[in-house]
């Protein structure tokens, strides 16, 4: 089959590499409206051909949207004339708002997916060979899709080495919030805590593994994450509150010098790793 | 020289491996009062000999304290009769409270150090070959030490591959708080946020790199960290507050749907990585 990928940054670029490597795509077509990225995409040989959107729509059996979640919504009108056999898959980090807004006309073709993988980097140069290998992809609300499209999507993601999980888009957004969106807000907050100190350089000079791990995702793209936080706003606000309550509990125990209770609280946190 | 190590978990066990590997120690003696660990220490061949405390004091040119920070304080009375040529080095994560409590009689011998390295694991089996390699060790308040002891300490830590930084213990505690103690409280809080959800398993099933990194140090020893939080209580409470303010700022921007300002806030967080 021919695969068309819209957006060739970390996610789209890595997918292009994967579908080529596993011989899933006869040809990989790409579309980007970032002039800045075009040269990198060609230099890195990520796709067989960069084409305009109308061409991509015509030549692709599957179209993958690997662009920020707000851009996915803006793209919808472009697909209203798509062939009924063409599968469209979005890979956005939020699902409920996207699914709600898929135009009725393409609802059967449009598969809502979220590959649970990534790095803090972005752009075509961030694309890596094995981003999807051994990771999990969540598909949402498949009951509204035609089987031909579900099967094509399953085939692609399974053949590049992913484990498939299906759930409701509303359930997905809560899960993704805890596992990804909340950790991002926390990491950004930690980075800004240090950056707001009078001498961040002196502090960072001592940084070891723990801090590096905790601040890594604070390097992520503000453009992309702003849209995600917007689309998952309600869940995120609730999750921040739950986290704030936990942190406050710890603070109170330290204030009150309740160290035995604090140890129990940490022991509870340790149990996460029994199921992680 | 002969090196005596008190406590042979992650830090002490890894140090034993390093001083042997680099041929710094003629013999490595160990002392632990954990019956449970004795077998592991011998099975892993971490030291040449496990001895009682009085023997260790007599045969060692350098004694390293690799035990929780409160245990370091409790150990002081045992060293009052130490030979003036014997160097004692503590490797605790807090420094101000320890330095303040060093008995006058051994102040010249007692070097306050903090190697900025570790993993989330603990116990003799957690000991690894290259824990110290290429990392930074902070020495505090060296003006109160005799040169013979400073030089011995420098020699050991440099020869196992560490970079030396010196600073006041009060300054150290602020830095360590931002770089290590605050990130630990945050990671424990994040772990407990997920564990307090009705179905943590379902959430964790989707965990990818970001969440794993953010929650890794929530696996750390509650016993050890309770003491650290106690000894660095004032700085930690202040740092938690600064972090809470940052998180609150983010929450407010999301509540008010001020996404452009939120993007600027994230861009500021991105700048951390220009100096990390």
Q: Would you mind describing this structure in some detail?
A:
- The structure is a homodimer of 276-residue chains.
- The first copy, chain A, is an alpha/beta fold.
- Chain A has two domains: 166 residues, 3-Layer(aba) Sandwich (Rossmann fold), CATH 3.40.50.720; 104 residues, 6-phosphogluconate dehydrogenase C-terminal fold, CATH 1.10.3660.
- The first copy, chain A, has 13 helices and eight strands.
- Chain A has an eight-stranded mixed sheet with strand order 3-2-1-4-5-6-7-8, with helices on both faces.
- In chain A, helix 7 crosses helix 11.
- The radius of gyration of chain A is 21 Å and the shape is globular.
- The first copy, chain A, starts with a strand and ends with a helix.
- The mean pLDDT of chain A is 97.
- Chains A and B meet through helix 7, helix 8, helix 9, helix 10 and helix 11 of A and helix 7, helix 8, helix 9, helix 10 and helix 11 of B.
Structural class of chain A: alpha/beta
Helix proportion of chain A: 40-55%
SSE order of chain A, one letter for each helix or strand: EHEHEHEHEHEEHEHHHHHHH
What characterizes the major β-sheet of chain A? 8 strands, mixed
pLDDT under 50 segments of chain A (min length 5)?
A: none
Number of domains of chain A: 2
Q: What is the straight-line distance between the termini of chain A?
A: 37 Å
At the fourth level of CATH, the homologous superfamily of the largest domain in chain A is NAD(P)-binding Rossmann-like Domain
CATH architecture of the largest domain in chain A: 3-Layer(aba) Sandwich
Helix count from the secondary structure assignment of chain A: 13
User: What proportion of the residues of chain A form beta strands (DSSP E)?
Assistant: 5-15%
Give the integer mean of the pLDDT values of chain A: 97
The global form of chain A is globular
Q: Radius of gyration of chain A from the CA trace? A: 21 Å
